[in-house]
Design brief:
The chain is built from nine helices and 19 strands. The protein is of the alpha+beta class. It has three domains: 106 residues, no CATH class; 134 residues, 2-Layer Sandwich (Pseudouridine synthase), CATH 3.30.2350; 78 residues, PUA domain (Archaeosine Trna-guanine Transglycosylase, Chain: A, domain 4). The strands form three sheets. Strands 1, 2, 3, 4, 5, 8, 9, 10, 11, 12, 13 and 14 form a twelve-stranded mixed sheet that branches. A five-stranded mixed sheet has the order 15-17-18-19-16. Strand 8 and strand 9 form a beta hairpin. The longest helix is centred in the N-terminal third of the chain and has 12 residues.
Length: 349
């Protein structure tokens, strides 16, 4: 698959390592690509690993669409202990165990009855949700009392793969349960774990979380970019020794860029496609409407592309039954890059 070159636009499917934030990966991408216009499609907790979609250049305009795609996770839920953050990064809450550990059949029945379909969940206070412009986790760490409202989410698949008895680091007998979850954007897997623990009266939290996919962008894609964690110790302004993790890509320069999805591949993973001709492309770039194909559904954004040249023209939607209108217009790529996109188009057909 052809990649993209520095100074252009595309997506990186990054396999986030444990111990760094999503922002750390964006910072690493900015440095590696020598670009400021870089962002990500959906935060992963520091404990979590897996797919983080990072966009650069014009592809950052796709991120608000990609972030709403269905997510797929694999995780391990530990019954028998609660933590302050509902995952292994938090402190164990003493005295939280009131009931016996559940068995596999009981968990599967509870999941089927109460944890699939449209459900209500309250995110943990240590989350990235903003309250009056501040992140909830910043408020919680500062000692403020954080109350988040319940939100409706959809869990389309919640498979309980198996359980095994274990012993926690403090000697507490626990039950570890491996699960796979497919869910809507905004679903907190650690909240599912917490609520299962509350249901059985024994407490629960996540000890492992991995995002396997964001829509069509998957961890097993051969173009996935791998990264590792490096620690750096420095003296801050107060004279204190501080150790901080940072994300470092396993590959840099042209090797890193060879993994990037060019705009044509990026929009095909993010949106339904509408093929247009050169004349329609010009009209869209001038903000004009064009004829609407019958297959375009109302309220569903699509990507208008010229397939012969792999030119990504605009994000469009139905204005009415007969016309498409541009929502976001992309500039025409320089002529010297067309051969890269055409090669990509030829290889994936």
């Amino acid at each position: 698959m052809a990649g993209t070159t520095a100074g252009e636009s595309g997506l990186l499917i990054i396999d986030k390592p444990q111990g760094v934030t999503s922002h750390d990966l964006v910072a690493a991408a900015r440095g590696a690509l020598h670009m400021r216009k870089v962002g990500h499609a959906g935060t992963l907790d520091p404990m979590a690993t897996g797919v983080l979609v990072v966009g650069f250049g014009n592809a950052t305009r796709l991120l608000n669409i990609i972030v709403e795609h269905t997510k797929t996770y694999s995780a391990t839920v530990r019954f028998g202990q609660r933590t302050t953050t509902d995952d292994a990064d938090g402190e164990v809450v003493p005295g939280a165990i009131a009931g016996p550990l559940p068995d596999l059949d009981a968990v599967r029945e509870a999941v089927a009855q109460s944890f699939t379909g449209r459900i209500e969940q309250v995110p943990n206070a240590y989350s990235a949700i903003k309250i009056n412009g501040r992140r909830a986790y910043d408020l919680a760490r500062a000692g403020a009392e954080v109350e988040l409202k319940a939100r409706t989410v959809t869990v389309s698949r919640f498979d309980v793969l198996g359980t095994r008895a274990a012993t926690a680091a403090d000697g507490t007998p626990v039950l570890d349960m491996d699960v796979e979850v497919e869910c809507s954007a905004g679903t907190y897997i650690r909240a599912l774990a917490r609520d299962l623990g509350e249901l059985f009266g024994c407490g629960a939290h996540l000890t492992r979380l991995r995002r396997e996919a964001v829509g069509a962008f998957r961890a097993d894609d051969p173009r996935v970019v791998h990264a590792h964690v490096e620690s750096r110790t420095y003296t801050n302004r107060e004279g204190e020794q501080v150790t901080r993790n940072r994300a470092v890509f396993d590959e840099t320069g042209p090797a890193l860029l060879s993994h990037a999805l060019p705009m044509f591949d990026a929009v095909r993973g993010a949106l339904p496609i509408v093929d247009v001709g050169e004349g329609e492309a010009r009209a869209l770039r001038f903000g004009r409407r064009i004829a609407c194909p019958a297959h375009v559904e109302p309220g569903v954004p699509c990507a208008a592309v010229v397939p012969e040249t792999c030119d990504v023209v605009a994000i469009v939607e139905r204005a009415n039954a007969r016309e498409l209108q541009p929502l976001t217009v992309f500039p025409r790529r320089p002529a010297h890059t067309d051969n890269l996109e055409q090669l990509a188009y030829t290889e994936v057909r």
